[in-house]
Design a protein that fits this description.
single chain, 156 residues, mainly alpha
């Protein structure tokens, strides 16, 4: 007998696409309980069907949102996103900043010059210099990552 777990390819695909419903157990709509086609783990399908229930089947928003595991404000947000972008709105977007936003080129160049002047400066010292010179509070790891990015560019 094999002790390997059976791989759920659909589950892996949903995770990878960012459309895995973290709370499939909250979906109580009968379509999702009685049909193999409707999958409560598929957030796109759940959100679309919730909107369809209201717009096509004339369900009250409170009933639909409750049946699909959402709050009423979440329903309104989902409907607005769908109206603006279609199904693509249901794909999770990456959160947070996309790039270094505090440490501009000017700040990084300043830090590199200070480090050249005094090689004994520690990252904690550089954090204080940035705050003093630019009035920006940065974490030491932000400075370390900026230096690493700078080194990579020089090595190209």
């Amino acid at each position: 007998m094999s002790t390997r777990k059976k791989i759920d390819h659909k589950l892996e695909s949903l995770k990878e696409a960012g459309t895995l419903n973290p709370y499939p157990e909250k979906v109580r709509d009968l379509l999702f309980q009685k049909s193999e086609f409707f999958d409560p783990r598929d957030m796109m399908q759940v959100k679309y069907e919730m909107i369809r229930r209201v717009t096509s089947d004339n369900w009250p928003i409170s009933r639909a949102s409750r049946s699909f595991g959402f709050s009423r404000p979440s329903f309104y947000q989902t409907k607005t996103e769908f109206n603006q972008s279609g199904l693509a709105a249901f794909i999770a977007k990456r959160r947070g900043p996309r790039a270094a936003h505090k440490l501009s080129l000017e700040v990084v160049q300043f830090l590199e010059q200070e480090k050249l002047k005094d090689d004994s400066l520690r990252t904690a010292d550089l954090v204080k210099l940035v705050e003093t010179q630019f009035g920006i509070k940065v974490h030491r790891r932000s400075i370390e990552r900026a230096f690493n990015r700078s080194k990579k560019k020089q090595n190209r």
